[in-house]
Structure formats: structure tokens, C-alpha cells
Amino acid sequence: MNKKIAVIRGDGIGPEIIQEALKVLDKIANIYGHNFSYVDVDMGGCAIDKYNEPLPKESLEKCIESDSVLLGAVGGEKWNNVPGNKRPEKGLLKLRAGMKVYSNNRPAKIWPQLSEASPLKKSIVDKGIDFIIVRELTGGIYFGEHKIEEINGKSVATDVLVYNEDEIKRIARIGFEMAQKRNKKLCSVEKSNVLESSRLWKKTASSLANEYPDVKLTHMLVDNCAMQIVKDPSQFDVIVTENMFGDILSDEASMITGSIGMIPSSSLGLTTCGLYEPIHGSAPDIAGKDKANPIGTILSAAMMLKYSFNMEEESKAIEKAVDEFLNSGYRTEDIMSKDMKKVGCKECGDLIVGFIKKA
Ligand code: NAD
Question: Crossing angle for the helix pair 165-181 and 196-208, nearest 10 degrees?
């Protein structure tokens, strides 16, 4: 199969982790007889430096024209003081909107080899952690009006949270469909005791339930959900929630699984062209030191093969290689524990490439 992949290396550790994921993709292409071609795309701080824009028009076009997009991470202190609409993260929001991907899917799964890295008690971890957060990605407060004004001599900031029922329906459907393929439990998370947008969210999700009779739909307030994720994460199968709540809950969920560096994500819309990226940021504190864990990016590439290219077997081959890497006692610094063998970003990628075998 021939596939054109847009590659956004980005800032901080972005270029390092992407390099390792590309090595993995090359090995897959080699042993399975595919041809992956890569188109480099400037986005984030590096694009601001070159074009004074976090996502130049040409970059977005390259992404839309590709079969899928693999992204490292963007942002860093250097660009913290640029105006709001020029910030690296704005490029990310524009990319998601431009690609019309409205669903961000983040697995929170504990690798048994890393169960000790979880900050949760063993008795909680032993019950198992394996759920997915389906987060709405192109609506809500991140895309509402933002303004700051002077009123009676004081600065007043406003951010507007808007959802219409169609936006809620399409993301809720993804939640129901994902639950159908898993353990058939969907938890819709909102703040309906306070927010009007959340009351519409709850009502709309409920209105779809009779179309998915095999899925058990429950509702939970976001503050309770934040507690339940640390108290008893085994209760969750699929969580569907709005943009900002999903942003926060998925970071919490990533932490209980051990390391933010291990977790991939996919963002999908109506077409198979998806955006695949690890859930962490550009980690400026460890950039350029060969310390980053590339596994979240490598597993994002595996998700790309599965969800966008229908290459289930190839995707599994990558997951198995990661499993073997961990079984062999190798660890990057962020997941290091006693008696394990510490490796850097590059060696981690090389070892995983070495473990990839055709089934
Ligand atoms: P971060 O995720 O970059 O880092 C948080 C902590 O986790 C740091 O200690 C970092 O060293 C560690 N970490 C992250 N990824 C790691 C990896 N792969 N291996 C080992 N350790 C890892 O979050 P932050 O520090 O809040 O943000 C840094 C920059 O990244 C900011 O400019 C922020 O806006 C940006 N950011 C970008 C994205 C994205 O590109 N999707 C997402 C979140 C934050």
C-alpha cells in the first residue's frame, strides 16, 4: 500500500520522538511491503520563527492532502509571550479545526510491566485500568469568543462556551460506537448541575441511547469523575465528554497509568485522514538531551496504521514490539524503576525497531 504521511516534528522533544516513530514505520513498510512517504510540515514555534504564523496556510494544505498526519509536539517558553492568536498551541487548534477532526480518543491503559509506576495503590491498580476518553475537540470554550477588556478601570476576561446539539450528537455517537466495540459501557461526563451547555449535553446523549440498546449509558458530573478516576478507574470503559473537561481528565487518566510519555492519541472526523500524536507536550525541560520517551509517539503511529490505513496486523506488530521492549527490562528515564536497564530516546526506538516481527 502507498501512503503519504504529513509529519509535524514541532518543537522541544518533538523532532526526537518523531524520528523514532519514523524508524518504526520504515521497518513496518519494509517487512510488510508498504511504501510510506513523508511530507515535512512546519507548525508551532518553529513555524512562528520562519513565517510568523504557527500554522501557515501551506502547512494546513499539506496535512489535508495527506493520508494522515503524525505530530510530535509544539510549544515552548520562547513563544510564551507572543500574542494569543500567534501562539504555537493556536496552530494545533487551527490544525484540528482545518482537518475537521472533532473527536480525540485517548486510551488510558496500564501496561502490567509498569504497574509500579502508577501513583495509585496496588489494590486499585490490580483491578485493572483500561478505558478510553473520547473528547470533543472542535467546540466548547476553547473555540468560543475570548476577550479581555477594561471595565470600570479593571481588566475583565471572558471566554465563551458554546455547544449545539449536532456537535454533541456526532461525538456522543463516536462514544456509543466505541463502547459497542469494547465492554459496552458509556459514561457521559458533564457539569449539568451548573452549566446550560452541560444540560444540553446530557439531554442529547440520553436522546441517542435507544439507538444503542446494547450500550449501558450512565451520566457523571465532571468533578465526581475526576475523583472516580483515582478512586476506582476499573469502573470505566468509555468516557465521552466536552473539550475542556476531556483535556483535563485525560491528563489525569494518563498519570494514573504511569507516564504521560506512553500514551498515544487519535483525532478523527468524517474521513480516514486522522491526526495522531502523543498526549504530552514538547517537554522543554528534557529537549535535546536524548531523555524523551518516544513510545507515546510510536503507539500513535500504530493507531494511525489501525484506524486510518486499516493495517490491523501491522499495528499489532508495533504494540507487541513495545511489549517485548518492556518485558526485556528496558526503560526510558520517565518510567525507570529498580533493576531495569535505562535507555535514551534513540536507543529505545532502535530496540523497538529490532523487536518488530511479521506475525
Ligand atoms: P509536557 O507534557 O511537555 O511536560 C510535562 C512533564 O512531563 C515534563 O516534566 C516533561 O519532561 C515530561 N514529559 C512529557 N513528555 C515526555 C516524554 N515523552 N518522555 C519523558 N518525559 C516527558 O507539558 P508542559 O511542560 O505543561 O508543556 C510544555 C510545552 O508543551 C508548553 O509550551 C505547552 O503549551 C506545550 N504543549 C503542547 C502540546 C501538544 O503539542 N500537543 C500538548 C501539551 C502541552
Answer: 50
